Amino acid sequence: MTTTTFEAQRAALADVVAIPVTPFAEDGTIDRDVHRSLLRRVLDGGVRILTPNGNTGEFYALSPEERRTVTELTIEETGGRATVLVGVGHDVPTAVASARHAREQGAQMVMVHQPVHPYVSEGGWVDYHRAIARAVPELGVVPYIRNPSLAGARLAELADDCPNVIGVKYAVPDAARFAAFARDAGLERFVWVAGLAEPYAPSYFSAGATGFTSGLVNVAPAVSLNMIEALRSGDYAGAMKVWEQIRRFEELRGANSSANNVTVVKEALASLGLCRRDVRPPSRQLPEAERAEIAAIAGGWST
């Protein structure tokens, strides 16, 4: 039996990891045609890894059937042009079923959302991810870590049992904690993805990350790609010029505990005529008075 090395998946993670939005039609259902057109736009823009069913895709507001639809549409539209990293989560049976569906559809990896349970022990965190990873040993597995109290040793323990755990989306807003966590887990053992997008990418790259997630990439793929090219070449001054360019947009997304994280992205897309601005509760559309600033930012990026 050959041992899977996941080299292609590891290489794919060291990039701009796009988190596509899920566009809705006027009747509230997923707009399949617009979904495909938005995916084509980011792929044509040079993006090479997509995460359907991520938070920017309103994962927690979608039904199980809709999450399957998003997975299928993304894999079909991608058609081998990019790596697909499918978001899975909720209870273990649901996450396992989603991971197996992703495998059947042809995805290369799954990202496991942070468990949304009020009581998460470190050992229970390992158990949760182990159950999912063992169910799809052929797929690369990427835990999405938002828990600042989780120790790096727990990730190493998980990977000892599950060699398909190959990368981490680290989304704790603390660059020093990230640096320590990565070294405690094994800096070279995993591919480290800065899970808080462009605002944190320069500081996290300086501590060992080689990829970052992005919702902004839905709006302006070239901007995100410019940042990672600068970071790859060690041009931190150049990366910070991009940081300054996207700062206000990301501040709007992050305000009020990220209440409008998805809303701002969809508003920007709506201002460009690319999709409706509709989001699902508990997100909410922006007031009319706040839309102009986002339209101005997005218009400045459009070519």
UniProtKB/TrEMBL annotation:
The keyword Lyase applies. The active site is at 144 (proton donor/acceptor), 169 (schiff-base intermediate with substrate). The keyword Lyase applies. It comes from Streptomyces fructofermentans. It comes from the Bacteria. Belongs to the DapA family. GO terms for molecular function: 4-hydroxy-tetrahydrodipicolinate synthase activity. Pyruvate binds at residue 56. Keywords: Lyase. This is Dihydrodipicolinate synthase family protein.
